[in-house]
Amino acid sequence: MVGSALAGLARLRGGKAVHPHGVTYDARLHVDGAPAAPAASELLSTPGERHALVRFSRSLGLPRPLPDLLGASIRVLDAYGQDRPQDFLMVTSAEPPLIRHVFLPAGDVQQRLYSSSLPYRAGDRSFVVGLRAAPGSPRPDGDHEFDRLERAAATGRLRFDLLVAAGFGRFERVGAVHIGSRLPAALDALRFNPFNTGGGLELAGALNHMRDYAYPRSQRAWGATGNRAGEQRRADDQARALADSKTHAPVAP
Question: How far apart are the first and last CA of the chain?
Answer without folding.
Answer: 46
